[in-house]
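Suppose a colleague, Dr. K., hands you the sequence of a protein chain of 361 amino acids and asks what its three-dimensional shape might be. Before reaching for any lab equipment, you can write down a predicted structure in token form. Begin with the sequence itself:
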Amino acid sequence: MPDPVLHTLHFNVTNTCNLSCSFCYINAVKEKTSDLSIPQVRKLAGEAAAVGAKRVIISGGEVFVRKDWHELLEAFAGHGMALSIVSNGTLISPDRIARLTQFPDCNILISLDGDRENHDKIRGREGAHAETIAEITQLREAGIDVQVNATIIKTNFSDVPFLARLSRDLDVPMRLSLLNPYNGRGPNEAPLALDVEEILRLREFCHLLRQEGSRIFLNIPPLLLHAEDVLPIRSPSCGWTKSYCGVTYDGNVTICGVAGADESLYVGNVTETPFDELWRSAPLFQKLRSMDHDDLTGICGRCPVKVECGGACRLSAYKSKDDFAASYGMCQTFYDLGYIPEEVLDPIEMAPVPVEAEPAE
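The predicted structure, expressed as tokens, is then:
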């Protein structure tokens, strides 16, 4: 079997954050954490490039709490990697924006979760909303590519029209995701996850806006979307470690960028073992690479777009059912409640029923 080619590395460069988001997937803290040093980051970047990395997602914590953030970006840009920086948008000063323009293949993914009241409550600090809006505007004026990411729960569900207007007024794409209740602080907010009826209302709202040219899109599996709303990306699933994996702030390698809060999914640490060696030969990675869409169970095993979807978030399936091949919870719930018609699914394969021999006369 040829060596697996890494496409995207998700590197959480620190676990320190200046905010305290209620559903933080990595359970970031305000205290300073023991992050990889710049020499260690440069080594990681070179080893990731050696196995094919074309893109790095730089996340945290909050990236810009690191004073050496510019050197950190240079480490990956120097190997020709595209940079995607995930930020809460409160620490990107004009000077930092000027320095960001030095990286031509760079985009900023800013988290914003509703209007002023709800966003500040979710983020745990009054004034965060105003700072983030101002810095999105400044980034756009500097010609830097910006996308806004929002996590929608019951608390800010009514703010979706506000977010849609913001997308239009600031001329930025808007990505709406649903709560991941299995990682970081997500379990604390699980009662606030949207129910099926709310997800359907959100889907139809976004669908109508997209028909009118809006750049708002909903991050749910393609089976649950209108066909014209499915975006052409590599795959919604990143949990097979065939082209993507994550590294924590202190160097632990794991299956994805969201899995850093679960030590049971660590396959080694780059301060002890070269990243490229872990990428190629970690037993957990090899196990996942031996699986594909034909191994999926439940509704995912019968899904007509299972090849393209890959089962959506495999981490969520594993965390909820201790099985990487388990069905994705959202799709399974939709099916169990009758929202996915049988005629769109692959038929259930059943063993032939044995025919009993007639008794001898």
